[in-house]
Amino acid sequence: MRFGLSWVGLVYLAMLLIPNLLWTRRQPEDYARFVKGENKALLALERAGEVLTACAAACFSDFDLRPWTAWCLWLIASFSCMLLYEVFWVRYFRSERTMRDFYGPLLGIPVPGALLPVAGFLLLGIYGGNSPLILSSLILGVGHVGIHLAQAREAGIGKKRASVPMQILKTALAAAAVLALLGITAVTAVRNVRAVRHWANLPRGVDEGIFLPLNGQEQYVLITGRDRNNPVIVYLHGGPAAPDTCCAYAFADALTADYTFVCWDQRGCGRTYFRNAGSDPENRTAVFPQALEDLDALVDYLRGRFGREKVILVGHSYGTILGSRYALAHPEKVAVYIGASQVINPEQADAYSYEDALKKAASAGENTEKLTSAWDAFRREGSLDTLMAVRALTAPYHPARIRDGQLWTALTSPYLGVDDFRWFLKQTGGLDGFFALNRRLFAETFDFDAYRQGTAYQVPVYFISGTDDWVCPASAVQSYLETLTAPGKGLLLLDGCGHSPQYALPREFASAVREILNGQLH
């Protein structure tokens, strides 16, 4: 939510109020007779809704025009309702101004003079992601629409009873609409509350999402922190090509008092992909050497902007491949490297998971044909589709005791944008296409071996793993750690977590990071 006078909100209020002022001298005959029977509770809700809606529409700048995205369709739908509302008034003022003229449906919409403006403001609230306007519109709708529906029925308008099947259908649709609105309201409200919390980052701190020019591409970076003089943490997402920038606040918020936290949608994914899709639609530049160069450019930018000699790297999953390789190559720019769910050798990890699942299935007397066939297909083709098929079959044998809840974290994020959602659809829409778009990075991931890249670090190296992680098993991480030479090293386990401990136990994960950086882990 952003406070400030909204010219769009003022336009909507003018479209609402001007016809109503004209109507006060052009009311239908006998209208005063129907007013006497108004429900007092509905009237109170209507009056409260009118005041709250007017204040919310005028006092938040969330509703003003912004660059085109698919989200703007909410504004188009909202404005269409308001235009139909004006059409309703034109029809009424040109009529004989009877109760039937006032309450007659418009394009099949009942009591359009009441329903259309409520829908217009409600959709405007969804467009702006503004829970005060959404809640105000719902309050207004219950009171205003309720009163006018009752008056229309009393006037004998719309009394024709629908067939039983149609009544059932209408009831089901109404229930679905109510549930959807309640869901949207709840999600928006939580997002607004979380956004308000981030205002504490200013004015000494920073809370901004920007596109930085990094080696020929504008790439999305989110920077949050309460003091610009704090050390800088750079978080490297997993995947490859699985950005979680909009979600990282779940654990980053517990660190921003003492660190400036930086998230980055890497080249070829998320907001960065859509920003550059016109010049590189097939992700030809999304290769691992380029990722290292982009990270180096980002680190140099952050060092210069915040006056730091070194940054802290925190990588997750694929991000640990990028982070560990960079820490080995640029110790002069890295203060500490932390690998969450550190990748050691993907092929060995999946083989380990497969063998364990196969053993458990056989011990339970289950048919293992599908499992062995899936594994053979993966070994033969090595595609993302076949890998996901294997993991889908082995996962039931390796459930994490604590689930990560990342979907709710994303939906209620104060940073969630349309392009974040578009990339999520691209990830889940078809693995073949997603794999083809990022095949060069996946090839690097499948071929990675932490031992082969080196074990002699010149910076402190620490790992955080979930005890129930079967994608990057903690036992493999421990074995790798024992071979390392580094100024400081250690492994911290989060009990019950799977592959994403930062979302399963976000506060505990942040505490682990803080413990490492405070030098308390030995």
Can you describe this structure?
The chain is α/β, with parallel strands linked by helices and 522 residues long. The protein folds into 3 domains: 7-196, no CATH class; 202-345 and 413-517, Alpha/Beta hydrolase fold, catalytic domain (Rossmann fold, 3-Layer(aba) Sandwich); 350-397, no CATH class. Helix content is 56%, strand content 10%. It contains 23 helices and 8 strands. The chain has helices at 7-23, 31-35, 40-59, 73-93, 99-103, 112-128, 131-154, 164-198, 249-252, 270-276, 288-306, 318-329, 346-363, 369-381, 384-394, 406-411, 418-429, 431-437, 439-446, 450-453, 474-483, 501-504, 506-517; strands at 206-214, 217-225, 232-236, 260-264, 311-316, 334-340, 461-466, 489-494. An 8-stranded mixed beta sheet has the order 1-2-4-3-5-6-7-8, sandwiched between helices. The longest helix is centred in the middle third of the chain and has 35 residues, at 164-198. It is elongated. The mean pLDDT is 86.
Total number of domains = 3
- The helix-and-strand class reads alpha/beta
What is the CATH superfamily label of the largest domain? Alpha/Beta hydrolase fold, catalytic domain
The CATH C-level name of the largest domain is: Alpha Beta
Helix count, DSSP H or I runs of 4 or more residues: 23
First-last Cα distance? 44 Å
Instruction: Could you tell me the CATH topology label of the largest domain.
Output: Rossmann fold
Total strands: 8
Described by the principal axes of the CA atoms, the overall outline is: elongated
Sheet with the most strands: spatial strand order: 1-2-4-3-5-6-7-8
Could you say what the CATH architecture of the largest domain is? 3-Layer(aba) Sandwich
- Beta strand %: 5-15%
Based on CA atoms alone, the radius of gyration comes out at: 29 Å
Helix content: 55-70%
- Return residue spans where pLDDT drops below 50 for at least 5 consecutive residues: none
